[in-house]
Design brief:
The complex is a heterotrimer. Chain A is mainly alpha-helical. Chain A has a single domain, classed as MetI-like (MetI-like fold). Helices cover 71% and strands 0% of the residues of chain A. The longest helix of chain A has 37 residues. Chain A is elongated. Chain A starts with 8 loop residues before the first helix and ends in a 12-residue tail after the last helix. Chain B is an alpha+beta fold. Chain B is 27% helix and 21% strand. Chain B is built from 15 helices and 21 strands. In chain B, strand 5 and strand 6 form a beta hairpin. In chain B, helix 8 runs antiparallel to helix 10, helix 9 packs antiparallel against helix 11 and helix 14 packs antiparallel against helix 15. The radius of gyration of chain B is 24 Å and the shape is globular. Chain C is built from 13 helices and no strands. Chain C is globular. The chains are: A mainly alpha, B alpha+beta, C mainly alpha. Chains in contact: A-B, A-C, B-C. At the B-C interface, helix 3, helix 6, helix 12 and strand 18 of B face helix 2, helix 3, helix 5, helix 7 and helix 10 of C.
């Protein structure tokens, strides 16, 4: 895998897909004359056509513009979860690798959290905290952090043994200096790769959460909640399943291509996992 | 049981008070609604059972597993629905909501309206082989008063006592006019079980939750496979009543030897199972799906008027405690749109301002008709501008576990925003919904679908605990209705109550919804009354 | 080695304590209670109060947790509030569908992935390899619930080849059993197969360059034999690891898939139990799943320890 051609193609494709989705989220709403929240009970379940590019939903709302608004929610939640869990993950992972006593405590907590099926943990947390975008982000961050922390830790354990770290140590570098100035840069490539997978995973988790009815509340749209509403009418309104499904797959594909490409490019040797707890 | 002694038992509310309506078996009473009393000879083996062969089993797809089959203890429809095939009450409702005897032969009322004397049919067998006597009935009915909260409250202080082997009495503290309706209503299902079962206590000395299911019904309990199905088999020693089946009353023929109640929470699963023949009957078809099924080959769609979708306003706390704002909302609501959101098509709901089933003529009153479904957005904005409303967020509480309630809330939310309100939908799971609803700080509006209640005074919406609408006027009006000497007086008191609720804009019916279910078109003898009735359902081979 | 295993089992107890306290607290904090689920929407306030008191649900968190923990230590997992029967019995009853589903999905995954992985590695950088890689990518990015939704629409609703949903017990015949489980297993299996294909391909590629494979080739062994006998044997460990790990992923995936296909397994039970606030059941399942997860991880670590002494040194 490592000694093969370091192709930039996956990165190009991945970032193009992502760019298109971001453009869709940012400017999609301007392309549509509709309001994402405006109902038209006379036009319920109109199939895709000239008036409504991707059809309408059970309240006669335009699906195209709701998907564009949903893209904002889905991408934002995914990004925030990836960012926050990377941040937490690097702190937990580095300190766990550095201090033995912390290692046992933190890793047992991480083991415990990742032993619980992620989607269940998220549902329980959502039920306890109540529905809101902030709480979705918190719940999914809790689910996603242990995995990242463990990857950071195992990478940091290898780095810690490197001669140059020992050297800084002998020269009298403080602990936090070693952790943050010497070790963290070395772990960054692997973290970035993992963050792109965590991003994809969070988008999927949000969709699963909304799919099971524990996600974002109406009238706010997300891809997952549109998919959820499609399950009741799958024989009648296929477009409610197809378009959000495609967007979901596209975004995860883009992020995975990006992560794969970056991993090959940077020759990251650390273990990384994809998708995560679903 | 050939002597069809069908006694006409009064829907007219106070007929019960009009002294003795004949003793047991002493006479065959005059006519009644042509529903076949004595006029029709019914073969007790079920007509033609010898000539036509029926399928060995019926597979019914229900929405959920019941919490238990202890029907009086739960308000769960799935529980009552299955239990009704195993257990029988003393009285039950026919299709015109008239009280008819079931395990009972008849009853008499004392002059003061305080003592009811009930006689039992003789020779009725329980599934365990013992015979039904008054001791069993007394124990079961007293248990019912203890475990069924609503019956216990409505008949507080009442007691059942044994007279002889086949006679018992009910003694009341006040001469309530609705005693027979309460006893015969499915909502307060008064089932009869052997005395030993009824007297079983748990460690705290309260009646134990039923774990063995022994009744007198046409089917006996066979097996309960957790999260999969409940299996009932025909009770061969069953003695059916002779009258033609009507509503929940009359003939129970049990043509089909085995009933399987499968628990299938996913609606697509129920429908496709029906299409592939895995199920013969699929309960609770949401309207989005029903319209697909209407034209489907081999499938019959059944609907019935089922209940009311109500919007409750928080009269106690928060911004909606200001009646002017509530009236603004009432003025601006377009109820038809909301109902379409919840129930998809005008085929599946009607608009009516009443709090009861419109087919119960005696409770249909004009009060409130002007306040209902005004659909006048200009007036609403006017009222709103004149009020103290200042852009506070209105919280609409809902749960996705009930899709009609949820979708109706989404439409109401859109209407409120169009009127100039700031809104927020809080969507939680069902137990959270119930918890938040019970605390008046946690919501401003919620919408629930409430099943019809045969007794208007028992309507959940009027319960002060339901949405915090605690009014002395309402409490007094309920007493007036229950103790009114005539139906006219009761209706008048009821009209006053309905008018008061609308004047205060405490809650409003949005519309009356129907329930739909689907069967294979080969299923015969199936009745969709207040609950689906399967004891005469069969598929010819 | 034995000492290491004991040490890991010791840490498992700590994990279980953390997990159980964590879950207990979360579920305790969720608004609403089991009474609503058992008694229904129209239950009266007195009924609910009675029920809550009878079940001890009005006690403070630490009393309830202490009682539960005390029970566990004496081997009593408590009774389900909703089903009113012992927790272990209820779990045992819901275990077979999930186990069947996991095994079936795993078989489908292996059936798809091993040949694909071998071919891709062997025909590296050909169009065939690229094709396999593309499909594994699709398998990775396609969420199983979406796949399930599409499979259901196509095979069950349109073609009517399979039941849309439901479950038939193994006792009622293997064929029926598998017919009901096929689509759910396929939705889960395809996602798994993507992971295993990648792992198979990657580890085979590493092995194919080693000297002993070259030696085997030099000896004049047939290519098929080289791949099957020598390469696969030596690349086996990471593949087995992936398979082991994927079993716990399958259990997780079962939550959504079981509720979509109405399969009465562990996933559906725990999802229902959350909305029924049936704490004993939730705790029981989480405990069982955690033990399962930890044991699998111990086995995987032991396998790794066997090939890479560094890992073991670090942990001890």
């Amino acid at each position: 895998m490592k000694n093969q051609n370091k192709s930039l193609i996956p990165i190009w494709i991945g970032s193009s897909i992502l760019a298109i989705l971001i453009l869709f989220a940012a400017f999609g709403p301007m392309l549509s004359p509709f309001d994402p929240f405006e109902m038209n009970m006379a036009e319920r379940f109109s199939p895709p056509g000239l008036a409504n590019l991707m059809g309408t939903d059970e309240f006669g709302r335009d699906v195209f513009i709701r998907l564009a608004y949903g893209a904002r929610n889905s991408l934002l939640i995914g990004f925030l979860v990836a960012f926050l869990s990377s941040l937490l993950g690097i702190v937990i992972g580095l300190y766990a690798s550095y201090y033995k006593f912390l290692d046992h405590l933190l890793m047992r907590i991480c083991d415990g959290l990742s032993a619980i099926p992620g989607i269940l943990l998220a549902i329980a947390l959502m039920a306890a905290m109540g529905p809101s975008v902030t709480n979705i982000v918190i719940a999914l961050t809790v689910v996603s952090t242990p995995n990242i922390a463990r990857i950071v830790r195992s990478g940091a354990l290898v780095i810690k043994k490197q001669p140059y770290i020992e050297a800084v140590h002998t020269l009298g570098g403080s602990h936090s200096r070693i952790i943050w100035l010497n070790m963290s840069p070395a772990i960054l490539p692997a973290l970035l790769v993992q963050a792109s997978f965590a991003f994809a995973s969070a988008i999927l988790s949000e969709a699963s959460l909304s799919f099971l009815g524990a996600g974002i509340s109406e009238p706010q749209p997300s891809w997952g909640s549109i998919l959820q509403s499609s399950t009741h009418v799958i024989g009648r309104a296929w477009w409610l399943a197809l378009f959000p499904g495609l967007l979901l797959v596209l975004s995860v594909l883009g992020l995975n291509l990006l992560g794969d490409g970056a991993r090959d490019l940077m020759d990251v040797k650390l273990p990384t996992t994809k998708k995560g707890g679903r | 049981m050939n002597t069809a002694i069908l006694k006409k038992l009064s829907l007219p509310f106070f007929a019960a008070l009009s002294l003795t309506l004949a003793g047991c078996g002493t006479e065959t009473n005059n006519t009644n609604n042509g529903e076949g009393a004595g006029t029709q000879q019914t073969n007790e083996n079920g007509e033609g059972a010898e000539t036509v062969e029926f399928r060995d089993e019926l597979n019914i797809a229900m929405t959920a597993q019941p919490p238990s089959l202890d029907a009086p203890r739960t308000a769960s429809n799935v529980a009552i629905n299955i239990a009704a095939h195993i257990f029988e009450p003393l009285f039950s409702m026919n299709e015109n909501y008239e009280v008819t005897p079931d395990l009972a032969l008849g009853y008499e009322v004392s002059v003061d309206g305080l003592v009811y004397t009930i006689t039992l049919r003789e020779g009725i067998m329980f599934h365990d082989g013992s015979e039904l006597t008054a001791a069993d009935a007394v124990a079961s009915m007293n248990r019912w008063l203890l475990v069924n909260g609503r019956a216990g409250n409505a008949l507080a202080g009442s007691v059942f006592e044994q007279v002889d082997d086949y006679t018992l009495t009910l003694t009341l503290e006040q001469p309530f006019g609705d005693v027979m309706q309460i006893m015969a209503s499915r909502a307060t299902f008064a089932i009869i079980m052997p005395e030993e079962l009824a007297l079983e206590l748990d460690e705290d000395g309260a009646p134990a939750v039923l774990e063995t299911f022994i009744g007198t019904g046409p089917y006996e309990f066979n097996e309960w496979r957790q999260d999969q199905f409940i299996h009932l088999t025909r009770f061969e020693a069953y003695e059916p009543r002779g009258e033609v089946a009507s509503g929940f009353s009359g003939m129970r023929a049990a043509y089909t030897p085995n009933l399987f109640f499968h628990f299938v929470s996913d609606v697509n699963t129920r429908i496709s199972g029906l299409r592939t023949g895995q199920f013969d009957i699929a309960e609770d078809i949401p309207f989005e799906n029903a319209s697909d099924l209407q034209n489907a080959d081999g499938i019959n769609l059944h609907t019935r008027n089922a209940g009311i979708l109500n919007a409750f306003f928080n009269t106690t706390e928060g911004i909606l405690s200001d009646p002017q704002i509530r009236h603004a909302i009432l003025a601006g609501m377009n109820n038809e749109e909301i109902m379409i959101g919840g129930y998809s098509s005008t085929d599946y709901f009607t608009l009516n301002h009443g709090f009861t089933n419109p087919s119960q003529q005696q409770w249909a009153v004009d009060a409130g008709v002007d306040a209902y479904n005004q659909n006048n957005q200009d007036l609403a904005r006017e009222l709103l501008a004149a009020s103290d409303y200042n852009g506070e967020t209105i919280r609409l509480l809902t749960t996705r576990d009930y899709i009609s309630m949820h979708n109706a809330t989404v439409v109401l939310d859109a209407q409120l925003r169009a009127l100039g309100f700031e809104t927020e939908i809080i969507n939680v799971d069902f137990p959270s919904f119930m918890e938040r609803r019970s605390t008046t700080t946690d919501w401003d509006i919620f919408i629930t679908s409430n099943g019809y209640n045969i007794l208007p005074t028992q309507i959940l919406a009027l319960d002060p605990n339901w949405a915090g609408f605690d009014s002395e006027f309402v409490a007094q009006a309920i007493q007036d209705v229950r103790l009114a000497p005539t139906q006219e007086a009761a209706t008048e008191a009821w009209a006053g109550l309905v008018g008061y609720v609308y004047e205060n804009a405490a809650f409003t019916p949005i519309g009356h919804f129907k329930n739909a279910m689907a069967t294979s078109d080969q299923v015969e003898g199936f009745v969709f009354f207040d609950h689906p009735v399967y004891w005469n359902a069969r598929i010819p081979r | 080695m034995v000492k290491y295993i004991f040490k890991r089992l010791g840490s498992m107890v700590v994990i279980l304590l953390i997990v159980s306290l964590f879950i207990f607290s979360i579920v305790y904090l969720i608004p609403g209670d089991a009474a609503t689920a058992v008694l229904g929407m129209e239950a009266s306030a007195e009924d609910i109060a009675n029920f809550t008191a009878r079940m001890g649900l009005d006690q403070p968190l630490w009393v309830q947790y202490g009682r539960w923990l005390g029970g566990i230590l004496t081997g009593d997992f408590g009774d389900s509030i909703f089903m009113r029967r012992p927790v272990l019995e209820a779990i045992g009853e819901h275990l077979p569908p999930t186990v069947s589903l996991a095994i079936f999905a795993q078989l489908i995954a292996l059936f798809l992935s091993l040949p694909a992985g071998i071919v891709a590695a062997y025909k590296k950088n050909t169009a065939l390899d690229k094709g396999v890689l593309f499909f594994t990518l699709l398998g990775t990015v396609f969420p199983s619930f979406l796949l399930a939704l599409f499979l259901m629409l196509f095979f069950s609703v349109q073609l009517m080849w399979f039941p849309v949903a439901g479950y038939s017990r193994l006792e009622n015949g293997l064929w029926e059993h598998l017919r009901f489980l096929f689509l759910p297993a396929l939705s889960l299996g395809i996602a798994q197969s993507a992971l295993i294909t990648r792992m198979t391909r990657a580890s085979l590629l590493e092995v194919l360059h080693t000297s002993y494979i070259k030696t085997a080739r030099a000896k004049g062994l047939r290519e098929g034999k080289v791949v099957m006998k020598h390469a696969l044997k030596n690349a086996g460990l990471p593949i087995i690891t992936t398979i082991g790990q994927s079993f716990s992923v399958l259990i997780t995936g079962a939550v959504v898939i079981e509720s979509l296909f109405a399969i009465p397994g562990i996933g559906r039970l725990i999802l229902n139990s959350i909305s029924r606030r049936d704490l004993p059941i939730i705790q029981g399942i989480v405990l069982v799943v955690t033990v399962f997860y930890v044991v699998i991880n111990i086995i995987i670590d032991l396998l790794y320890g066997a090939i890479d002494p560094r890992v073991r040194l670090d942990k001890e």
